């Protein structure tokens, strides 16, 4: 069964039900559920009521595999995710957070072959490693979940085209946040032997979004090998600004601080 909100924040009124019956039903009463919650979530300048599904709330409710929280970024990923969920022997709720813009975004399209074969990948490596940049030159690994990955890759590609030294980074997409895909992430990180810095970047303000959940898991993965920092919007009481112009400026700042300053047109 699937339940879809027109915007992710519309689930706010159902929070009591989610807390008491969806997240904890198995632990309380031994009742399992394969409910799918489709919650549009993405900072696209539409204001505080149409940006955030409060993904941090769902991450705070996850433990011991009681729910799966994902942000798929391609059509094939979404297809394989739902197919795998339908065939899963262990029933557990699935929360899918994805922005409306990816429904029509060219970057999110998948070839037929990717739909016919393959599976849902919990972490996606940078597609540019095969043709856009030298893997051995990569020093920074930028981890991101959701729509922001496409902005980050576009900025990185612009830096490569300009010949900027800031372009020596790879963008890794964490498609599944919970259960945390530690083994899959480690495997991809090891494919960049020269990297010494990991950056988590998110659209949400610092006191929201996945960061506080991710930090503990990432620290265990990177400890002793990489430096770790995060980039986010400034902590706020509102999930997003109501000004589109300020939204654009905030997005530029996120990309400047994580991927690198935008190249100056000549």
Q: What distinguishing features does this structure have?
A:
single chain; 266 residues; alpha/beta; Rossmann fold; five-stranded mixed beta sheet; 9 helices; 10 strands; 33% helix
**CATH H-level superfamily title of the largest domain:** Multifunctional 2-oxoglutarate metabolism enzyme, C-terminal domain
> N-to-C terminal Cα separation, in Å?
54 Å
Structural class: alpha/beta
What is the global morphology?
globular
* Low-confidence regions: none
Overall pLDDT metric:
92
Return Rg in Å: 18 Å
CATH topology term of the largest domain: Rossmann fold
Largest beta sheet, briefly?
A: 5 strands, mixed
Tally of alpha and pi helices: 9
Task: Write up what this structure looks like.
This protein is α/β, with parallel strands linked by helices. It has two domains: 2-116, Rossmann fold (3-Layer(aba) Sandwich), CATH 3.40.50.12470; 123-258, Rossmann fold, CATH 3.40.50. Helix content is 33%, strand content 17%. It has nine helices and ten strands. The protein has helices at 15-22, 25-29, 55-60, 75-87, 112-116, 148-162, 182-189, 211-222, 244-258, and strands at residues 2-4, 36-39, 68-70, 94-97, 123-124, 140-144, 169-174, 176-178, 197-205, 227-233. The strands form two sheets. A five-stranded mixed sheet has the order 1-2-4-3-8. Strands 5-7-6-9-10 form a five-stranded mixed sheet, with helices on both faces.
